[in-house]
Amino acid sequence: MSGRDDGGASGDLLDLPLRGERGDGFALPLPSEGPNVDPPPPAAAPVSSRLVAAASDGAVLVLVVAAALLAAGAARGRWPASTGLSWAAGFAVYLSFFATVVPLVLFGRTVGMALAGLAAAPRAGSRGLSPRESLLRWIGTVLTVLSLGLSLPFTRRDRQAPTLADALSGRPLLRTDPPGTEAP
After folding, report:
1. pTM of the predicted protein model
2. C-alpha 120: how far from chain center
3. Are 93 and 61 in contact (CB under 8 A)?
4. How far apart are the first and last CA of the chain?
5. For the chain, what are the domain ranges?
6. Could you give the CA distance from residue 75 to residue 67 in angstroms, rounded to a whole number?
7. Strand 173-175 and strand 118-120: pairing?
8. Helix (H) or strand (E) holding 61
9. For each successive 10 residues of the chain (184 residues), what is the average pLDDT?
10. DSSP structure class, residue 151
11. What is the rounded CA–CA span in Å between residue 27 and residue 17?
């Protein structure tokens, strides 16, 4: 370094000011200078984002169950019988319970919700849902899947109308991403 303080023009270190003089065209406002504007409240989650979250959660479940089936097939040297496949289906339901309820209690979102930029509406002072709310959300999701998504057209008609999982848990899903960074 040269020892001179000429703005770093001849030194090894380029020193750019964070704040320039008025009129020089280069001034970054400091956080305390700007107007105190609260961020907009999170918007209700659209059906497309909910489907992305559900598909992501489903993909995680299929991946884990498929890995378990492949490991069982490799260990036995043959594909599992129909009773083994029924056990795998039961394992998928069991796994979906823990892949949904535990993250909702701890974080207020599942893996799929995090990927889609969604979270359950928080209560004051809490980060996640209560165990009861998480269980009811899981039951609502299972019932929606078993009914082949019968309640989803009602949600599409009115974005603020809760899905079955929202209604049972009492906590609707909200978009948490800032505008312009939405998931597909």
Report:
1. 0.65
2. 9
3. no
4. 49
5. 47-175
6. 12
7. antiparallel
8. helix 47-76
9. 50 56 51 58 72 90 90 82 83 90 88 87 76 88 84 65 76 70 52
10. T
11. 8
